[in-house]
Amino acid sequence: MRKIDRLLLEYGESHRNATNKAVHWICVPAIMFSLLGLLWNVPAGPLGLIPGLENANWANWSVLLLLFASMYYLRLSIPLFIGMVLISLAMIYGNMSLNEMGSTAHLAISFGVFAVAWVGQFIGHKIEGKKPSFLKDIQFLLVGPAWLMHFIFKKVGISY
Fold this sequence. Notes:
By secondary structure, the protein is an all-alpha fold. The chain has 6 helices and no strands.
């Protein structure tokens, strides 16, 4: 069995309840988007020292996180990597647009969504009766979005 199949199967073991699954369809993307928004607002520091990137709106910690996450997905599955890159690009675009409201508003909205989505996740797991997978292994924070993506792939007939 491939590593991606084992990870998705293990992740799915604590996500069988219909309510918990529904919560995850809302909260996992919300957490991902809002985490990127929070990181977007962390000063670029050394990223801003790279020639040509000092004024680039997209040269920030959220993009760096997505680059590392993309490498993780690439090691697991090329189709899931492509799907996650497309979702990541949409989330980058959304955060770029949200940042046009100003960094204070962007940060406040991102923090609010992040907090509410995590509360939702823990409520979903309380209903499920099982602890979140990432409490056992931190890599499940990256498996969650891929788990949702694999359902989309199955629905449209794409092998992951």
